[in-house]
Each structure stands twice: as structure tokens, then as C-alpha cells.
Amino acid sequence: MTSAVMPTYARAPVAFVKGEGCRLTARDGRTFLDFAAGIAVCALGHAHPRLVAALHEQAQRLWHCSNLFEVEHQESVAAALARLTFGELVFFANSGAEANECAIKIARRHHAAAGHPGRYRVLAFKGSFHGRTLATLAAAGNPKNLDGFGPVVDGFDHAPYGDLAAATAAVGPHTAAILVEPIQGEGGIKVPDPAFLKGLRALADKTGALLMFDEVQCGMGRSGALFAHQRVGVAPDVMTVAKGLAGGFPVAACVATRKAAAAMTAGSHASTFGGNPLAMRVAIEVLAIVAEPAFLARVAQAGQVLAAGLDALVARHPHLYAERRGVGLMQGLRCTLDPGTMADRLRDAGLLIAPAQDHVIRLVPPLIVSDAEIEEALLILDAVARSALKAA
Prior knowledge:
Strand content: 15-25%
Order of helices and strands: EEEHHHEHEHHEHEHEEEHHEEHEEEH
Helix content: 25-40%
Strand order of the largest sheet: 4-10-9-8-7-5-6
Distance between the termini: 38 Å
CATH topology of the largest domain: Aspartate Aminotransferase, domain 2
Radius of gyration: 21 Å
CATH superfamily of the largest domain: Type I PLP-dependent aspartate aminotransferase-like (Major domain)
Number of domains: 2
Number of helices: 12
Shape: globular
């Protein structure tokens, strides 16, 4: 039977029907240790009791009313994000791509309102990923993802990730903003030198450009800090958040200073479903759990356990694992086999991972992962390496 689903995904031949904690159960009864977490989305694992209860309670009361009216819980989530970050104003959307679209619009309107409509260009970085809309594809500039979708949206320039000198040279009189991931995820778990982010902050201050951090993947506790930029003490003017914000329920946020977003007045931007009561109620619970210092300390500790184990695998199996990258529970292994092949072999062995660019597999388990589950994942990675060596 021919599927009616548009074939835009190269899907693995497995369908999951149940999840609990860090494990998923497939339709055929097989169970898997989930170190993909919906691509760093399921921050608190599957079927977390507090999230299930919050969603169930809200679902019995109100699902949707639109942003034509005040939406219950929006003020609470916005206030929490403002309290926990540099931000003062929050726009709610449904996905990271939408949040990044909002950030780009903030940058353009910010300068237009100041009398400089010619300042519309955004400097972004090679290897980045900001979403699948036409504008966010142009922001990332990946030729593979842009193929067939021309003409490419104008207004984006690019510099090598981590290269402050190149970024400085790329900023000109038409630059409205600098858009960067504090840790690249899709690009291959790349962690820049702290001096890079600090230098971008100084560059933005010097030129009047807005500094915008895409924390869609690296935010919400994944690095061991609530937001990755907080690890290096650099605050942006605008930040985008999604993925883990509601632990798997679709929601995103664009957080900004009041000054940066001053021109975003009534009618300048909107979202039909953004910030709906269901998403807001779940986000309240996620923020209450993840923002706790003890929870973040445990994420950092678990990240150290995972990193140490991955380093040992690199030393033991250089024929397959060439390099470890990452911080916290955002770890990557650069492999000598392509990530798709690695994903297949690991899945057959009971471990789910997320492929990335640069021959990297991402290990981004739920933030509640135990040391025992980390050890189990490491044993599977070791077994797959041994099998690869025998087959060579």
C-alpha cells in the first residue's frame, strides 16, 4: 500500500507506541534506550508524571482561544523566562524555525524603526541550523538544504563558526544582527571557545547590531546550565528557545530585551497556535523542574559521566570513534562511518541516537538519564565498535 504521507523523511523502519523515562517501546514489542530524545526535545523523558498530569488537567479545561484574547498561563511562562534570563519580552510560537523567524523580524524592524531600513542583513555561521523556512534556510546557508528552493532569500551573510576575525570582517553598515548557536547541534556538536561568544558581544556593541542566540537545541538545561550562553557569561539581545521548553509538546519562544523588541507593536507579528493554553501549562512544569539548581547540577554530573565514557571509547576504538565533542548532555562522536549507518547499527543493538553533520552522531538523552542508563549506552557503543572491527 502506497503511503499518503509526503516522503520528506528517510524514516527508520520502526514505529514507537509507548515511552517511559529514557525508553521507548515499538509496535513489535522491541524496547530501545533513547539517547535521541526526539532530537533533544524530550528533556524530562517520556510520559513524565508531572507533565502528563498538567496536560491532562488543562485538556479538560481549555485547549485554544487564539491570541485575540489574553491566554491563560502565557504571562506566567513569559515571566519565568524573563526572570531566568536576560530577557524582558517574550513571543510564543510553535517551533524553533518560527522563533528564529521572529528574531530575524525583530532585527529588521528594530533598525527600520530607528530610521535605518538599510540595516537588514544578518550575519550567521557556516554549519549552523536555524529551521526549514525559506528565511531560516537562507540564514544557515547549507547548499544541500537550499537545493531547489531558489531564489535564496536575500539578507544573510556567513562566516566560519568560531572565527571572530572573519565575523568582524563580515559585519558592515547594513548588518542588523549576528545570529549564532552558542553550541552547534545539527552542525556536529561544535563548542566554540568562550572568547568567540564574548567577541561577538563586543562586536555587536561596537557596531549597533543585535546579538541573537539560537538556543533551540542547546538550551533548556542541555549544557548543564539552563541556557548555554550562561556558561560563558555572555548575554544576547535576543534568544530563541524551543525543543525542550515543553518536553515534547510543541512550543517555542523568542526572548528579547525591551530595547531590542521595542518596535514589535500590535500587528507586527502573530501566531495562531503560538502559546496556546496546553503548551503553556506544560511549559510551566518543565521550567519549574529544569531551572532548579540541583537538577542542573545533576545534568552537569551526568554529562561528565557520559563524556568520560565516550573519551574512553575514542581511545579504545579509534577505528570507529575518531573524536568526542560536547558539554553536558549534548555530546557527539565523530565516526569513521557515516551517521546514517551508525544510527542503523546502534538501533539494531537497542540504542537510539540522532545523526548530525560532519560524520557526527549526537547523544542527547533525556536530562533525567541515570548513570546506569549511561553505562548501558556506552556498552552498546562498545559492542557496535567491536562488531565493526571484526567485520573490517
